[in-house]
Every structure is written in structure tokens, then in C-alpha cells.
Amino acid sequence: xxxxxxxxxxxxxxxxxxxTQLLNDxxxxxxxxxxxxxxxxxxxxxxxxxxxxRPWQPDTLxxxxxxxKPIAALAALKAVRDGLLDLDTPVERWWPTFATRGKExxxxxxxxxxxxxxxxxxxxxxxxxxxxxxxxxxxxxDQEPRWQPGAVIAEHAATYGHLIDGALAAVGADDVATAxxxxxxxxxxxxxxxxxxGDQGRIADLEIIDDGFTAEYLERDFGSAALSNPxxxxxxxxxxxxxxxACSFPAIGLYTNATSLARFYDDLGRTxxxxxxxxxxxxxxxxxxxxxxxxxxxxxxxASWSLGLRVDDGEFGMGGIGGSGGWFVPSRNYSMxxxxxxxxxxxxxxxxxxAVEDALGTTKRTSTPS
Length: 370
Known about the structure:
This protein is an alpha+beta fold. Helix content is about 35%, strand content about 15%. It is built from 13 helices and 14 strands. It has helices spanning about 15-25, 70-80, 110, 135-140, 160-170, 175-185, 215-220, 220-225, 235-240, 240-245, 260-270, 275-290, 345-360, and strands at about 5-10, 30-35, 40-50, 55, 60-65, 190-195, 205-210, 255, 290-295, 300-305, 315-320, 325-330, 335-340, 340-345. The strands form four sheets. Strands 1, 2, 3, 4, 11, 12 and 13 form a seven-stranded antiparallel beta sheet that branches. Strands 5-8-6 form a three-stranded antiparallel beta sheet. Strands 7-14 form a two-stranded parallel ribbon. The mean pLDDT is about 95.
């Protein structure tokens, strides 16, 4: 294991053992793990390699897929707090070109809670450069919703961030990437949608370590349509390119590390935190409150969504396909994050989550929100 001396509170030795074993057994190729409580790290460890001949460093970043959706949602909620948008007025008030072909009743609440009925790009987008944000937003403008807005829950796996950026552009608000940079600077952490050339050397190369990491989605027509369009977003040969890493694709393109993500959720769990201040009391409550609960047609399982977060089983957070994730457990007052470059299942982070619960002397978690 290539790691600097970890931060390790007494009792967390078993968690470190699990992390080390994952690397030694080849079940992990490079990752970081972080656990925080009340602004204090209980565990900080990283190990493995960021790429060929590049040991994972404390500031190494990795693309974390859907883990970034709650961060993207914050940009929209900040615009609501600033009076530029609201949650329940149809977005046609600000974005009239969008409000056609059955989308006239679509609200920002629908978009943020995955009930807008636009969970996939169209077949036309298969020919679009995935880094062409304008073309992909136009594709959503031109579509009919799959369902009446508000009627059906389906995680907007790839379309989420483009819908948000379209609404923000319509009112002249900062886009997701810009708003996220400002929030990250305030928190003193790494959260990025698109990276400057100077930061590209910090990025870990994604690598498929389990070909089954997409199986449960791609074996279903709807899941395949959601994740295979635009072309290349699940292919490390494309997502490891400088062009992709420089673009902002907010549904799946968050670059971060476990320390930053755990610190974010630790702050989010406090009513006096920077995120609560950033949103204001009303939007902070909305962000943490379930808005849509039922069968999610993308996940093909029950889910409860706030305005960007999964809020199942008494905790809130988000995972990303491939194995990264972050969350906060209010009843036990701790945050945890795992960021990996190895595209596989959630088995690794679930094992680590169980070990953390054991270290805290609490009941084991069930699974990572994704």
C-alpha cells in the first residue's frame, strides 16, 4: 500500500485493515477513505496508485460519477435563495424555449427530485460530442418528456446537470461548475466539475476492475439508454482524456477525493455549517427533506429523493456508479466518503462502511446510496 501515515482514531484499526486488505488482494487499485465527526477527522487514509507509476497522493482527485449530483443541485438551490428561480413555478417563466412538447408544467422541483420525465438524452445525442454542453441542452429542449412531469421517479442519470445548467443559464445565474468552485473555496475542499490544465496531473486514471459494474443497469433497456448516451461516458479510454476532464458534465463529472467529500457531508450535517449558510434556512431544509419517494424506474428499486440527495434509511448522501460515494448519518453524527479510480461494484465501500460502524459501536449499515 502506498500511503502516508493515516489519521487513525483509536478503535478504527479494523477499518484500516479492511482498506489495506482490499489493496493487497487486488480488489482495489487506488482509493481514498475518510470519516469525520463535528469537524474532526476520525480516519484519513489513501493508497494504491493514481495511474501507472503514480502513487495515490493526499490531493489526488478522481471522477466519481453520480456522487456529484447533490453538489450540482446546490447551484440551483442557491439561485432559488437569491430569488432568480423558485421551486414550484413552471420553469417556462424563465426558460420559455424549454417549455414545449409537454414540458410546460415542469418545475425546478421536478428537475431536482428526478421527476421531470427527461431521464435520457435522445437518439440524436448519440452523434453529439459529450463535451458539447449546448448541443446536449438543446437535445433536452427538443424532447417530449417520457412521463408527465412529476408523475414518475427515475434518476436522471446523465441528463441531471444539463437540465440544471439550462435553467441557470436562462436566468443569468452562475453555472454548476462556477458555483461549485465558489462553494469549494469557501469550504476549503476540492470539488470540481471540469479541471484547469494545472490540476490535470492530480487526476487518477479510471480503470475497470469488474466488468459487471454496469451489469444491473445495462441489462435493462431503460438503464442502457440512460447510461450509454452520449457515447463514451462509461469508457475510461474517453473519460481519461484531457478534453473530457476539462469539460463540465455535472450529472456524472465531479472530481474530488474522500477527504473533501467527507468534510462536505460533515458540514452539511450541521445547521450552523457553511452549506446551511450558503443555502439559507428554507433551502437547507428543502435540501435535506424527501421530495419524491417510490419506485425509481432507473434504479429499478425503491428510492427516496430530496432535491439532489438520496435520503433513505435515516441518512443522506449519494454514490456513483463504479464504487465512489459519500454520506452523513444524522442519528450517529458522522460522515464517510470513499473515492476510487477502480470501476467496480459497491462491495468495497459497503465492507468499509460496515467496518466503520463496528468501530463506532453501532448497528451495521445496509448499502451505499446510489
